[in-house]
Specification:
By secondary structure, the protein is mostly helical. The protein is built from 3 helices and no strands. Helix 2 packs antiparallel against helix 3.
Length: about 120
């Protein structure tokens, strides 16, 4: 792997994982409170939060792990556009994963809310 391709891969991975952890950090507190209120089982709350971060990390890694394969004579801006394209795909995949996860949590809330008498 040429040197610039390796640098682009590392930069790509750092950005993708950073975005995933940023999303987790923004949603973690509210999600924990919702799950604690609805599920009322600390183990279930921990499970759903761990599943959430695992899903985000796998989606982020899965899109960029293939790396950037540019020709050795490629210009700097070609690498910038390749990284931007990968990050765009990461955002798209994270959005889809969030939609699926929100659907799952909605089902959990709808099913368990009547059992809690609220």
């Amino acid at each position: 792997m040429p040197f610039y391709n390796a640098i682009a891969l590392v930069f790509d991975l750092v950005l993708a994982v950073g975005i995933a952890f940023l999303i987790y950090g923004l949603l973690q507190k509210s999600l924990r409170e919702l799950l604690n209120h609805v599920v009322q089982l600390p183990e279930a709350t921990t499970f759903y939060l761990r599943a959430f971060i695992l899903i985000l990390a796998c989606v982020a890694f899965g899109r960029v792990i293939t790396g950037i394969h540019m020709k050795p004579d490629a210009r700097f801006m070609e690498y910038v556009w390749a990284v931007a394209s990968d990050i765009s795909a990461v955002f798209q995949d994270l959005f889809i994963a969030l939609l699926v996860y929100v659907g799952l949590i909605t089902v959990v809330v709808v099913v368990l809310r009547p059992k809690n008498g609220k």
